[in-house]
Each structure stands twice: as C-alpha cells, then as structure tokens.
Amino acid sequence: MSSLPPGTAEPARDGNVMVGAELARAREAAGLSLEEAAKQLKFAPRQLDALERGALDRLPGGAAVRGMVRTYARLLQLDADPLVARVRASVVVQDAERLAQRFRQPVPFSDDSRRSNLAYIALSLVLLVVVAVVAFEWRQERSGAARLNFVAAAQQPAEPARVAVASAAPTPIASVQTAAPAETRRVEGGWRRISLQFERESWVEITSGSGKLLVSELHAAGAERVVEGLPPFSVVIGNAQYVRLTYNDKPFDLIPHVKVEVARFTLQ
C-alpha cells in the first residue's frame, strides 16, 4: 500500500504504468517486437518504449499521448476508450491559450545584476517575435487562401472526390471541377488518400504533386476531412499536435515535424 499523501502525482503515474503494461502484454501476445510495432504505427521505438513504461512526461503534448494510446490499442485490437480515459487525467494539455499565458507572464528582474536583467529582456523579446511571426504567417495564409469544402469520409463516393470552391463573388480560383480530364483518369491508379481528424481548431493546407492547391481551410474541433490526389503532397498543418493524420489508411506521426505548433512535411 502506498504511503503517499493525498493529492500527489503517484496514483496517475501508477495508472500510466498499468496502461503501458497492458499495451506491452498485448503486443507480446500478438508476437510483435517493439520495433515491429513502431514500424507499423509510424512511431519511433523510443516513443512506444516510453508509453509502455508509463513515462508520459517524455512524450510531447496531452493530445498526442492520447492519440498514441488510441492508435496503439487499435493495432493490438484492444478497446481504446477505457485506456485513453485512464491516461487523460494525468496528462496536461498545453493548448495555444496556455502558451500565450506563459508569454504574457512578467519577466523576473533581479536588482543584483543588470546583466541578468538584460538577458531576461532579450530572451522575452525573442520569444515574442517568434510567436508574432508564426501568428502573422498563419493569419495571412488563412485570409489569402480559398475556403474549400470536402466530402466527409463517411459520405465519400467511390470515385475520387472533386472539390468545389465556395465563393460569394467570382474569383480566378472559384471554379467547380465537375469531371476528371482524360489524362487524370489514365493515372487514377496512383491516387492517394489523406484522412484528417481534428481534436482542436486547426488550419490545413495541402498541395498536390502537380502544384494544385487541394485544400486551404480552417477546421473546427471534432471535424474530419478526407482528400485524394496525386503525390507527392506538400502539407502544412497549424495546431498540429491536436490533429491525427492517416495516409492510405496508415497512421502518420506528425510529432517529428512540429515546430512552434506548425507541421510542414511532404507525403510521397
């Protein structure tokens, strides 16, 4: 029996270890090594190792941890919801508002050393400039791009979905593609599918291998989007730690590509 006083973090830690141990046992029962499971899930072996040992503090972001648990459980044919619920309380979700509050905190000054004060000021200015640049770029891309509506995954027809651009007034990009040209139909065997699920509001831009803008849109929390086209795809995702991406029905790990909450990468 634990002698820790009430309110300590040890119970949450024990719960994480139990969830990780259950995943490890299921993996071993399935005859998979840690490296084989990591390869199928597109995760790094060290990430799965930390998850199985309950060391969630070594993994980035609360939403990312819950997404890893859910994806891992599905691979091992386990009921994902109870496992996700058991780790939810022990994971702190760092959202954009929390990040903004951290940058709004006053810079601590010391009367003992003017050099330390100048260092604090310089560091704060650098952080504020980085946040301002990212926010400005995101806003410019959102305001300058067209809003595209995609067919949800559950309603997608057998033929590759064609995107209709909704606009209040005629613009050069506001056109409706009603039928695939003959050249496109000849290469439909090379089309690929990208599926996106959003836990928080997120902006997404995807460009096909031919340079065509397939989607540039802000998505609400809880939304799901599917887009098909010819690779390679150039992808930009804002608030990426709250987005789950599947490429050709295989989970794709966004975590290695996230820099200041924005993921930029290419899908081949």
For this entry, give a set of tags.
single chain, four-stranded antiparallel beta sheet, 8 helices, disordered N terminus, 434 Repressor (Amino-terminal Domain), alpha+beta, 39% helix, 19% strand, 268 residues
Characterization of this structure:
Residues 1-12, 93-97, 146-180 and 182-187 have low confidence and may be disordered. Helix 2 (34-41) crosses helix 3 and helix 4 (62-75) packs antiparallel against helix 5 (80-88). The chain is built from eight helices and eleven strands. The strands form three sheets. The chain has a five-stranded antiparallel beta sheet, covered by helices on one side. The protein has helices at 10-29, 34-41, 45-52, 62-75, 80-88, 96-104, 114-144, 182-186; strands at residues 148-149, 164-165, 192-198, 202-207, 213-219, 224-229, 233-238, 243-247, 250-252, 258-259, 262-267. The chain is globular.
Radius of gyration: 22 Å
Give the strand line-up of the largest sheet: 5-4-7-11-10
* Proportion of beta-strand residues: 15-25%
Supply the number of structural domains: 3
- Helix and strand composition category: alpha+beta
Described by the principal axes of the CA atoms, the overall outline is globular
